[in-house]
Amino acid sequence: MSDNAVADAHSVAHEEDVIAELTAPVPEVGDGGPEMVQLLTPEGQRVDNTEYDHYVADLTDEELRGFYRDLVLIRRVDTEATALQRQGELGIWASLLGQEAAQVGSGRALKPQDYAFPTYREHGVAWCRGVDPLNLLGLFRGVNHGGWDPNEKNFHLYTIVIGAQTLHATGYAMGIQRDGSVGTGVADRDAAVIAYFGDGATAQGDVNESFVYAAVNNAPVVFFCQNNQWAISEPNERQTRIPLYQRARGFGFPGVRVDGNDVLAVYAVTKQALDAARSGQGPTFVEAFTYRMGAHTTSDDPTKYRVSAEVEVWKHRDPIERFKSYLVHTKKADHDFLEQVDKEADELAVHVRNGCLEMPDPKGDSMFDHIYVEQHPLVEKERREFADYHAGFEGEAAH
Amino acid sequence: MATMTIAKGINNGLRAAMERDPKVVLMGEDIGKLGGVFRVTEGLQKDFGEDRVIDTPLAEAGIVGTAIGMALRGYRPVVEIQFDGFVYPAFDHIVSQVAKMRARSLGKVTLPIVIRIPVGGGIGAVEHHSESNEAYFAHTAGLKVVCCSNAEDAYWMIQQAIETDDPVLFYEPKRRYWDKGEVDVDSASRGLLQALVCREGTDATLLAYGPMVKTCMQAAQAAAEEGKSLEVIDLRSLSPLDVETVTKSVEKTGRVVVVHEAPTFLGMGAEVAATIQEQCFYHLEAPVLRVGGYNLPYPPSKLEEEFLPDLDRVLDAVDRSLAF
Predict the structure, then answer these.
(1) What is the pTM of this model?
(2) Contacts of residue A374 in chain B, CB cutoff 8 Å?
(3) What is the pLDDT of residues A154-201, one digit of tens each?
(4) B196-323 has which CATH code?
(5) According to a count of CB atoms within 10 Å of the terminal CB, is the N or C end of chain B lower?
(6) Residue partners of B87: CB distance under 8 A and separation at least 6
(7) Boundaries of domain holding A389
(8) pLDDT tens by residue, A232-277
(9) B2-183, which class in CATH?
(10) Partner residue facing B70 (CB), from A151, A161, A174
(11) CB spacing of A176 vs B73 below 8 angstroms
(12) Alpha-carbon gap: B83 to the closest alpha carbon of chain A (Å)
């Protein structure tokens, strides 16, 4: 056999391997598969995990109860907002139902100096960052495009263009690097960024570009993908042929799949990723494997594209029931506590409902505000014309 | 006074801005060791380091998207888009994010980003390297759009754009990069958003910006030899427009020709013409005429001399205006 023949045979064998890999059936990942990090079973049983146990070891019972409170309260806010939409008080609402643990677990892993870049569904993360849930409603009621100061809570405005915020997050992380706030070892100085997005967004060019930018810059950013299995009506198979977390490897950084309905596991995995980012080890991709229990938004009708049996399966993996079961069985929470949280949730719902109804409509000429920092002749001209036009009707009203 | 090319004017302006403010960072493809394909950033990475002159991956949405994040963190990114025709992958970030961020945050967030774009044709390039897409961005509220035409403005306008807290699209006339001019490096003689009367005249007004200013100046010179007195205005800022300088001139001459390389349909000339007829109707002696690129995709470079407005096409329009 000549050298060339050997090389040819080798390359054919390699080619066959590649083809075999490319044409292999997509693995069944309905339950997240064996690679998925889980600390609590759907029944609320604590399972050991040598790699991640120590990230939750220091959590006090009070902190654990705090997680539960977060989960319940934000679900109650979500339920109330959905009701407000049905009653015509909101134009639309994007429900987080089913994704509470993914959001609270990751949100609670953040430090104050970290910065979060949400999609339009991160109500639970907003809650963890201290944004009043009432402020989330302005966008959906149509009175503003975002009702909070992003820099006050280090929580950016909701981004509606799918995946765009992953690049903003990466750029922000590059800024942190240039500020010298990575890898100093000073606990309240080193900072990281977390970029939220969904399974559908992984198909976007922006998201893939953000992976490239983060990788080559070794930027302190955690890419937190809530894989809720559905991008409006399109299932995962329309977005990917490999499990999403495996994409990270191709970009040169670690990817982890975590049970997105297990608040403890999400907290642990996110904490590890954020620690790595803050200490200068660069980006991590976290795929929180979860499920969108409700519709994409209140305008959507999931009965047209998915079977109810699937929803039923996921009901047994409910993030709140799971954590409640864990707290009760380990005697970290008693009946009084659970009742107290429910009461608090109802009070919060009243706050959200009343606040929504009392939210004033913006004044007409306010749409000319804040377009530019500096005075802009065209904006000012049209502001005057708008005022003059409306002033012209004032006399008529008197008749 | 110092003599320098437009490219060097921008280079020096960038250097001055970077020396003044440590938050100014440059981002773009090949802008480091190479100094950019037009050498506009030459020597800056060597002097300011790789953290401030950032060679980015080859992805324009990524450049502008990450620049947004840098600005959110308190930096003042100056982005280089390598060629006009390559800005479209970043269009979404410029139009949906950069332009809207201040309004949608109710003034809480400002993005002091400058996006530099070499613009226009005339260099015999392959397709996508000769476009004039300024109208897309001038159409977008929240952005400022400016275009320099000479070395003095190159030096000062880039610094003024960087100092502006609003996002600025900064167009650079690529075929004039190597044109030399006198620069007063001690003080700026005009603001970023002011139009400039480059040549006074009484018979008709030529309105232009960027690469067409030189063409119009040559046309005015040729017309003068035939006894026609043309006023030439360099608009400099396309959004906002310095309407006052324009109307003042129109009130004097009563005749206007707007000149740009971009196709005329819904181009800057259309907006300028509409504004003039709204505000100077009784002063007009003739319809406002437009001279621009034809309304087609930019042609192969062997045809670009036919496509682009030149001295003769400008004078032809002037004659038509005067004959009206």
Answers:
(1) 0.94
(2) 164-166
(3) 999 999 999 999 999 999 999 999 999 999 999 999 999 999 999 999
(4) 3.40.50.920
(5) N
(6) B60, B81, B94, B115, B117, B133
(7) 371-398
(8) 999 998 999 999 999 999 999 999 999 999 999 999 999 999 999 9
(9) alpha beta
(10) A174
(11) yes
(12) 20
